[in-house]
Give the backbone structure.
Amino acid sequence: MVADKRYSGKPKPAAKKPAKKPAKTAGAPRRKTPAAKRPRRGGVTGFLGRVFGWILRLIWKITWRITAVVVLVLALAVGYLYTTLPPLEALLDGRAKGSVTLLDRNGEVFAWRGDQFGGVVTADSVSPHLKNAVIATEDKRFYRHFGISPRGIASAVRINLSEGRGPLSGHGGSTITQQVAKLICLGEPYDPSAGITEKEYEANCRRTSIQRKAKEALFSMAMEAKYSKDDILSIYLNRAYMGGGAFGAEAAAQRFFGKPAAAVGPAEGAMLAGLLTAPTTLSPTNNLDRSQNRAATVIRLMQEQGYLSAREAQAAQANPAVLSQAAEARAGGYFADWVMSTGPEFFTRNTTEDVRIKTTLDQRMQRAAEEGLRWVFDNKVREGSKAQAAIVVMSADGAVRAMVGGRKTKVAGAFNRATQALRQTGSAFKPFVYAAALDLGYSPNDLIDDSPYCLNIPGSGQWCPKNYTETFKGQVTLTQSLMESLNIPAVKISESVGRELVSQVAAQFGIQSDLAAGPALALGASESTLIEMTGAYAGILNGGSSVTPYGLVELTLLGDDEPLMGSGGGIGERVIQEDAARQLVYMMEKVISSGTGKRGQFGGRELAGKTGTTSAAKDAWFIGFSADYVAGVWMGYDDNTPLRGVTGGGLPTDIWRETMSRVHDGLPVKPLPMQAPSGVSGLGDTSTTTSTPAPAPQPQGSIIDQVLRDIFGSSGDGSSAPSPQGGDR
């Protein structure tokens, strides 16, 4: 038997072990399976997923391309606006008009007019308290944004919508940069030839349409690229209107506090910053309490944002800002209005320059006049009375020292009864009748018959004047006639010397209004203004020379040393002889010492004047003077309603006394420049010198009566026709 073969001819190969996969290297990218080899989700879900993904990819491609285009367009727009922006210096003073600063006789500022600009300030030169107050109030993220504040805009839109307004109506969310953009009207200067007014132009600059807001945003970003943050804040501090005619922080600080913007404290800085919201409504010259309340809110914001410590904020709250004395006078009142109207229009009302006007105003006397008027109305006039009054105080050369044009003294632009109201003068006109007679050689001692007297007026019939008391005195001197304001002697004297001469004397003394042509001229039937009448009396005081009342002393452009113009008033030509003027002063002194103006006495001084009351007491006057000053007072109703129980010797004389006693407080007593005639008897003693003897009084009636008999014949005693009668007591 044969055994099986254990091995074949060729040995079998050994079985191979499976190869190990290489270990994954950390961080190596994972190879994606080709899309063709990935399994696709089937069904509706897979289809919708693929559609949604395609849409997202499409949106992304469109969005980034549009965004790139928008960014490019915005960059080009901002770049273009950047090139149109002027140098910083050109943006600091944006006023279209100039300003007028008025100084009193001592060189102190008492009023401002026009668009006041105190000078250029910077964010570094103003008080830190003012700078911080502005940022805390207007834009607390000012130093952190790029010209616009998306957060602020969103907040403003939310507030507007919640309050039922449109998204752009009300709160604007504007940054300081955006406010500056509005102030410069987005670089669009005012063009008078465009057919719109400056007011319409300013309103157009403040439109809040979407297109306007978009351009404002671009302009703000261009400004942020062009100027530094402090530059932008400087423009704001110089151009912003802060009420009271003040443009910019410097003008406002000077206007309200009488100090530069660099010197204001926390309370004052807070008040100025508070004005930016509503400068006219919140102006401290309009309503100080409202302005202080707004400042208190600003102080709270400053404390919350870390600009003031709790102690500093408490001190500012306890001591709120108050107005300077000049600011309390608002815009200078009636006097400033009058001075502005007397200067050349292109340097006052329509000036494009900054002008300084030195005036004749004495602020102490102005307060005296206002206090005197207020005292009489508070103590002697029934409550609720609508009666008005006016006062003028001046020197003998016509320099006006004080002026009150109505009972509301803290006003500007109001009707000025001292300079604009034409009113009948009544017996206040009589001194000009006696001035004409004295200049012709009549004596204060000449006699005249106060008895019934009539004249035949062509076309009107017989006219018979009456005295206020409707009684007759018989033979009286000219002095007594003026002292008691008798009408019949005044008419007789006027007819004796000639109405034309009386009119001429009055006109040369400064009564510019049309004078009555008839015999009632002597009784003040003509109209005049208070300032004209007071100026005419100043001519009597200064010795018989005319004066032109004036308030403007000199006008200078800011920065110039030489004035462009000087005073347009002062003493003019002689009207009557000096002796005649001194004798007239003597006669008028008797009016106050013994006659119808006795209530005007004060302080043991020699005073002279004349009362005046018109027909039906529609106007009441008292005008008088000391050796130092002349003052005139008018009282009446604007609608010519008759005064009840008031004559020139009553309330107007009281106002005159209260004013002049305050004006003369502290002044030495001086004698009047008066001259008594020879042979004075029965009219009181005089201590003045006597001139060359005047014509002696006539024992058998007066020379005036003889002249009248020669001209008109017997005077008769017929009944009088109804007509206005002057006179007062």
Remarks:
- Residues 40 and 46 are 7 Å apart (CA to CA).
- The radius of gyration is 43 Å.
- Residues 43-84 form the longest helix (42 residues).
- Residues 1-11, 24-28, 680-703, 706-727 have pLDDT under 50 and may be disordered.
